[in-house]
Each structure stands twice: as C-alpha cells, then as structure tokens.
Amino acid sequence: MNIEERIREIMVKLLNVKPGEITPHANLENDLGMDSTEIVEMTVALEKAFGIQIDDGEITKNQSIGDVVELVHHRVK
Predict the structure, then answer these.
(1) Mean pLDDT to the nearest integer, 2-6
(2) Distance (Å, rounded) from C-alpha 62 to C-alpha 27?
(3) Domain extents for the chain?
(4) Cβ neighbours of residue 53 under 8 Å, at least 6 residues apart?
(5) pTM (2 d.p.)
(6) What is the architecture of the domain spanning 3-76?
(7) 33-70 pLDDT, tens digit each
(8) Inter-residue contact 64 to 24 (CB < 8 Å)
(9) Computed over its alpha carbons, how large is the radius of gyration of the chain?
(10) How far apart are CA 17 and CA 8, in angstroms?
(11) What is the pLDDT at residue 1?
(12) Side-chain half-sphere of 66: how many Cα atoms within 13 Å?
C-alpha cells in the first residue's frame, strides 16, 4: 500500500465516507466538511501511521487531500 492509499484509508475511517470521495482535489473543509477537531484527529492519525511529526498549523482546513499526501511524502523521505 502506498502513501496515498494509506491516507485514503485513514480518511475513510475518520470521516465515514466512501473511498471515492477522497480525491487529490477534495478540499478538507469545503468538500469533506472537516472541522478543526477532525483536522487534529487526522494529523494524529497520520503521525502514528507514518511515524512522522507534523507541526501545528501545517495542515489547515484550506488544503486538499493532494496537499496532505505531498506533506506526508516529504516527511517520510
């Protein structure tokens, strides 16, 4: 499973949505309806899943799933 697939899996569980809704262009707030609490939950889940550290504020409600994937890719390297 690659990083994008793993993030999709995490998001599906966190938001209780269908995998098809988690697209690279899906905006966290506007398309997926995430609030600040869900952003924090997602950040913690990503940190645990990939063994990385994401600073507060790096993931904002104005980012897309593609932005999150790119951030994780840079942290994992």
Answers:
(1) 94
(2) 7
(3) 3-76
(4) 47, 75
(5) 0.91
(6) Orthogonal Bundle (1.10)
(7) 999 999 999 999 999 999 999 988 888 867 999 999 99
(8) yes
(9) 11
(10) 10
(11) 77
(12) 6
